[in-house]
Design goal:
The complex is a heterodimer of chains A (about 260) and B (about 290).
Chain A: H1 2-13, H2 16-22, H3 31-35, H4 42-75, H5 78-83, H6 89-125, H7 134-161, H8 166-190, H9 199-211, H10 221-226, H11 232-259
Chain B: E1 4-14, E2 20-31, E3 36-40, H1 47-54, E4 62-67, E5 70-71, H2 75-78, E6 81-84, H3 96-106, H4 111-124, H5 140-152, E7 158-162, H6 170-185, E8 189-194, H7 197-203, E9 206-211, E10 214-220, H8 221-227, E11 229-238, E12 241-248, H9 252-262, E13 265-273, H10 276-285
Parallel strand pairs in B: 3-8, 3-9, 6-7, 7-8
Antiparallel strand pairs in B: 1-2, 1-4, 4-5, 9-10, 11-12, 11-13
Helix pairs in contact in B: 3-4, 4-5
Classes of the chains: A mainly alpha (about 260), B alpha/beta (about 290).
The complex binds adenosine-5'-triphosphate and magnesium ion (MG).
Organism (chain A): Geomonas limicola
Keywords (chain A): Membrane, Transmembrane, Transmembrane helix
Protein name (chain A): Membrane protein
């Protein structure tokens, strides 16, 4: 498993897609100058911009690396040579996933450090009303990374059944959209306006709410930008949700992948 | 214990719109340790299907098989095997050395031994100079050589090779044959598929001929060649000088007797045989050649 983990990381670092996405990171140092466009909340804006950019880069990485990793193995017939080694398919899949997850965490960490430098430069030039709560900025980035790791788990699960890159890539993007919207839809359904919907529709929406991923809890931007204290219980629940959801996705993925024939 | 034991293996592919292909029908076969077995058959005969099933890449529709006593489809069975896929593809962002190390570690080889074996096989397959270049830049034959190298690196008991000679130059083919013979001498089992009859003739102990998913014949190569003798070319020498004479197989004994009586010396006796190729064509086309 560790060997698969290792070559997964090696593969990502040598991947052209990764190099391409890396280019987006050069925008980060531009954040201070762009932030000056805001008259009053320069530091707040720099945090917002940095976090959004990091989130966007992580999204690209998880869709294009996570969504294509396993598909490429199958499409380019690497699976014949690799799955005939004495590595079980479960271990292979877990090695792949852990490699991708570790890479996302690493990328988030590196980008996070750059962002902190950028934000502290801005804060030095334009002292904010409230001091920046670095712990919250850090937490926001880590939870963002967790969100994308969950997304990669979904991408891997989709890859195990798909024969083209279409399902994993667009399925991952769809998962992202659904995951970001599910909380709002749920709240709408629960609201007085939602009362007008047919009961069947409301039940469906409720059922889907518990099945589909929900990314809203991973969003700690507000806490980072305005220094709102984090709720300990809330973050703990989010971590728990993450662990359970990822475990279920991987369980499904390993079952499907073990049954798959390499024709 | 036989190295490879296949019992009643069948495989039916179900494609789109419920199309069904019976790629393999009730195949039973045993290959011993220390034996080179040639798996011969025309395109689409079911050779690769058999091999992929042995490696657990596809599931048999029915039947079972064991590798060194372990049921196929388990990591334990694959632990004994070096497998070369047909038209192999390896992670092209790695170089040959990195890939071989990856394979060796997957087999749990200790690092010291692995480094040493890695250098040996790279040199043996003439990949030493290219070992640090990503495999993306390799030619077809070089990739095939990596395929042979990754089969050898962990020194397994069983070698399952799907068209090992494909894409290799004559020197490479000779090298592969030499390697196979060496493995046999060290008591290893080599099972390889091919559609080139002469490859079988020169290295194999036994040959199995498969067409349309059915195993038609399993024979000792020597026996086929012996049985295939149709006559003899004699070179004779007497007072008038030397001359040649063709004698049909069944008349050899009487002819030799007569020649002895006449005081003619036989300087050379060469068998004239139907080749393995003829034998193969006979089975595949179903008619005598
Ligand atoms: N994935 C698949 N789906 C459907 N049919 C398949 C599939 N793979 C192989 N077949 C069919 O199974 C039969 C045997 O194929 P196989 O690849 O085992 O042949 P082969 O003996 O290896 O041929 P070759 O010498 O060309 O490599 C063929 O009729 C082929 O069309
Ligand atoms: Mg084949």
């Amino acid at each position: 498993m560790f060997e698969v983990f290792r070559i997964t990381l090696k593969g990502i670092f040598r991947d052209r897609v990764f190099h391409g996405i890396l280019v987006a990171a050069v925008l980060l140092p531009l954040v201070p100058s762009v932030s000056q466009l805001s008259m009053r909340q320069v530091t707040e804006l720099s945090i917002t911009l940095s976090l959004s950019l990091i989130s966007f880069i992580l999204l690209l990485l998880s869709v294009f690396l996570g969504g294509t990793s396993l598909w490429k193995d199958i499409d380019r017939r690497y699976t014949f040579s690799v799955l005939s080694l004495p590595i079980s398919r479960t271990r292979f899949l877990l090695g792949r996933f852990l490699g991708l997850a570790a890479f996302l965490l690493l990328a988030a960490l590196v980008l996070g450090v750059v962002a902190c430098v950028v934000v502290s430069i801005t804060a030095g030039n334009y002292p904010p009303d409230r001091p920046v709560v670095w712990g919250n900025v850090f937490a926001a980035i880590v939870f963002d990374a967790l969100k994308y790791i969950l997304l990669v788990a979904a991408a891997v699960a989709l890859s195990t059944v798909s024969t083209s890159f279409f399902l994993p890539v667009f399925g991952t993007i769809a998962t992202m959209l659904v995951g970001s919207a599910s909380q709002q839809v749920y709240e709408y359904v629960q609201s007085p306006a939602g009362e007008k919907l047919t009961p069947l529709l409301r039940q469906c929406a409720n059922a889907l709410y518990y099945v589909l991923p929900n990314f809203s809890a991973f969003d700690l931007k507000v806490n980072a930008i305005y220094g709102v204290p984090l709720s300990g219980q809330g973050t703990l629940l989010t971590v728990l949700y993450f662990a359970v959801y990822v475990a279920m996705l991987l369980l499904v993925a390993t079952v499907l992948f073990s049954r798959r024939e390499m024709k | 214990m036989n190295a490879i034991e296949i019992a009643g293996l069948s495989k039916t592919y179900t494609g789109k719109k419920w199309t069904r292909v019976d790629a393999l029908k009730n195949l039973s076969l045993e290959v011993a340790q220390g034996e080179i077995f040639g798996f011969l058959g025309p395109n689409g005969a079911g050779k690769s299907t058999t091999i992929k099933t042995l490696l657990g890449l596809i599931r048999p529709s029915s039947g079972s098989a064991r590798l060194m006593g372990e049921d196929i489809g388990t990591a334990a069975a694959r632990k004994h095997v070096g497998y070369l896929p047909e038209n192999p593809a390896f992670y092209d962002y790695l170089n040959a050395e990195e890939y071989l190390l990856f394979v060796g570690r997957s087999f749990g080889m200790p690092e010291g031994l692995l480094g040493q074996r890695c250098a040996e096989v790279l040199q043996r397959l003439q990949l030493w100079d290219a070992r640090k270049r990503p495999m993306r830049s390799y030619s077809k034959g070089m990739v095939q050589r990596v395929g042979i190298a990754q089969v050898l690196i962990h020194d397994p008991e069983v070698y399952i090779l799907d068209e090992p000679m494909s894409g290799l130059d004559p020197v490479g083919r000779a090298l592969v044959k030499e390697i196979m013979t060496e493995l046999k001498q060290r008591g290893k089992c080599v099972f390889f598929s091919t559609h080139i009859v002469s490859d079988v003739e020169s290295v194999c102990d036994r040959v199995g001929i498969i067409t349309k998913g059915e195993l038609r014949s399993v024979e000792r190569v020597e026996a086929v060649l012996e049985r295939g003798v149709v006559g003899y070319q004699l070179t004779l020498k007497d007072r008038e000088g030397s001359r040649e004479l063709y004698v049909p197989r069944e008349q050899l004994t009487t002819t030799v007797g007569e020649l002895a009586v006449q005081g003619v010396e036989i300087t050379l006796l060469e068998p004239r045989r139907k080749s393995l190729e003829d034998f193969f064509l006979e089975i595949v086309t179903g008619t005598a050649v």
